[in-house]
Specification:
alpha+beta; Nucleotidyltransferase, domain 5; Gyrase A, domain 2; 3 domains; 5-stranded mixed β-sheet
Length: 401
């Protein structure tokens, strides 16, 4: 916010809800105090704007913007593209409306906010500090604000908290104020504003002017300080190009956040992967150590197993040829199935036979597989060969499991 010989930087404290007010000589000093994510408002000095009070023959809010634009173009020698305008409704009657319209030249606004724009610090709202002061101290009725901005003292006439007329005072000497303030009241009367000024608000830094102002205006004068918090007002002079740039920066900020989160997630997954890889390597090393330590015992068990398998046909009765032949004959499904040849080695047995039909041959192999005494073998049989007499000649093999 503009103040005498510089700017006031106001920031809300995060914990106790109070406001920190810091005096800055230029807006350049505000840059280190801001970040791209800050949501801030820029209040303009009166010298940077033009405030006009208009009577509009309508009460329809949808018609206000176009009618205000036409009135502003009539009042200023600038095209609509060079200006940013906004308005606030002062009062409405059955026949029309009274609005306060404010305009600012875009190039002048860019020059004022250049230190911020260089860092892409774009405010959420550009308003007029006089409107904030009026909304805070005189939301109803007429008022006159007198306060310093930059190197001068300014005055603003307000109605119902809206700025109607502004002036820069040429001097603050009593003799000069005797000329300036009556002229200001006359200008207000000519625009249809009641110049009785029941509320006269004087900034605390201009306290020495209090008696002079009261004597000239014959109205009680109230001393006011910096507003904390600053009042929220509708007036917004943010250019459309700034809005678009702010939206782009906001989207870019969101993308940056998503990319940071995605990068963090990827880094986390990568760390987890390498942690798992390191754990598995340690576990594999531990298992290899145990395997190497138990290798002699394992080798002994394998050798013993191989020896027992080699001796099994001799020491295990289940491998005796007589026992196997007995179980084979017990599994014959029919007298029409005959065993014609039997061979046995240490590793497998083979049985040749002839059946009255192929179905009987398949019944035989099925009974062999189900015989509990022959479960030590795994039997396989090729398709039987059909003989001229329609008998089926088969061969099956059994291998130890």
């Amino acid at each position: 916010m503009p103040t005498a010989h510089g700017w006031n930087f106001l920031r809300a404290a995060e914990r106790n809800g109070s406001w920190d007010v810091r005096k800055l000589r230029t807006l350049d000093e505000a840059v280190p105090l801001l970040t791209a994510q800050d949501d801030f408002v820029l209040g303009l000095p009166i010298a940077a704007v033009l405030a006009q009070r208009f009577h509009l023959p309508t009460v329809d809010p949808a018609e206000f913007p176009e009618m205000v634009r036409i009135q502003i173009e009539k009042a200023l020698p600038f095209s609509a593209d060079e200006l940013t305008t906004d308005f606030e409704v002062i009062e409405q009657t059955e026949t029309g409306s009274v609005v306060s319209a404010v305009a600012v030249r875009n190039d002048q606004l860019a020059e004022i906010a250049a230190p911020l724009l260089k860092r892409d610090y774009i405010p959420r709202q550009v308003t007029v500090y006089a409107a904030q002061r009026a909304s805070t101290h005189a939301p109803q009725g007429n008022a006159l604000l007198i306060y310093p901005e930059g190197e001068t003292v300014v005055s603003a006439v307000t109605e119902n908290g809206k700025v109607s007329l502004t002036r820069t005072l040429e001097g603050v000497a009593p003799q000069q104020l005797q000329i300036e303030l009556p002229q200001l009241a006359l200008s207000a009367e000519l625009q249809g504003i009641n110049a009785s000024f029941p509320n006269v608000l004087l900034d605390e830094t201009c306290y020495e002017l209090r008696d002079t102002v009261q004597g000239i205006l014959a109205s009680p004068t109230e001393i006011v300080g910096v507003e904390t918090p600053p009042a929220s007002v509708k007036l917004n002079l943010l250019p459309e190009s700034w809005r678009l740039r702010r939206s782009q920066l906001a989207r870019r900020g969101e993308w940056q956040k998503w990319l940071i989160w995605a990068g963090a997630a990827y880094a986390g997954l990568l760390f987890l992967f390498f942690a798992c890889l390191a754990y598995f390597r340690l576990e594999i090393g531990r298992l290899n150590h145990h395997i190497a330590r138990d290798a002699p015992k394992t080798e002994f068990v394998r050798a013993a197993e191989a020896n027992w398998k080699a001796l099994a046909p001799a020491v295990d009765s289940r491998y005796y040829p007589v026992e196997i032949l007995l179980h084979l004959f017990n599994s014959l499904p029919s007298p029409e199935v005959r065993i014609t040849a039997y061979n046995q080695s240490a590793r497998q047995i083979s049985v040749d036979g002839e059946a009255g039909s192929a179905a009987l041959a398949y019944q035989f192999i099925d009974k062999l597989k189900k015989n509990p005494e022959l479960q030590i073998f795994q039997f396989d049989m090729a398709a039987p060969r059909i003989l001229p007499n329609n008998h089926a000649q088969f061969r099956l093999e059994g291998k130890p499991r």
